[in-house]
Amino acid sequence: MSFSLLPKFTAKALTDIPPDFLVERGVRLLMLDFDNTIVPYTPDKPTALMASWLAWVKDCGIHVCVVSNSTNDRVPRFCKAHGLHCITHARKPFRKGILACMERFGETPDRCVLVGDQIFTDTLGANRCGVCSVLVDAIDDHNIWLKFRHGLEVPFRYLAKKRRITR
């Protein structure tokens, strides 16, 4: 598929994406990055707003699956506690984890969205699989590596600024 570093859409935060935005586009599977998209890197408790947003999306009949590169057991623990499916060791931007998620739910790329905070993993991985990519701002750039990585994304974020989802 396409090698593009530009997301199809952008949003300030995951909770700024209205579920009806997904429903109107026929989305049946919402794939979410975990760290810095749903929760910061260390805590594994979502804010009240995030918990209600996740419930709202599921109430719309959309399957939600966390697709994470993490090898940490906090991802499956979080997903189990919140009634979410998950795929860990996804190795984004490689296609394996994303394709495994679509296969698990029997969905095609045109019925899927992947939301994440990093262009070089989440956006590129989604685009390579033909899945609609949504880039959100990181919840917390807690270390120098993340600040550096997100700094490298600035030109791509600038080019995609007109793709912002508005309520």
- CATH-defined architecture: 3-Layer(aba) Sandwich
CA-to-CA gap between the ends?
30 Å
Radius of gyration: 14 Å
Strand order of the largest sheet: 1-6-5-2-3-4
Fraction in beta strands: 5-15%
* CATH fold name: Rossmann fold
User: What helical percentage do the residues reach?
Assistant: 25-40%
Average pLDDT, rounded to a whole number, is 92
CATH top level is Alpha Beta
Taking the sheet with the most strands, its summary is: 6 strands, parallel
Overall morphology: globular
In total, the number of domains comes to 1
Tally of DSSP β-strands = 6
Low-pLDDT residue spans:
none
The ordered H/E elements are: EHEHEHEHEHEHH
**With helices defined by DSSP (H or I, 4 residues minimum), what is the helix count?**
7
Structure commentary:
The chain has 167 residues and is α/β, with parallel strands linked by helices. Helices cover 37% and strands 15% of the residues. Strands 1-6-5-2-3-4 form a six-stranded parallel β-sheet, with helices on both faces. The protein starts with 8 loop residues before the first strand and ends in an 8-residue tail after the last helix. The mean pLDDT is 92.
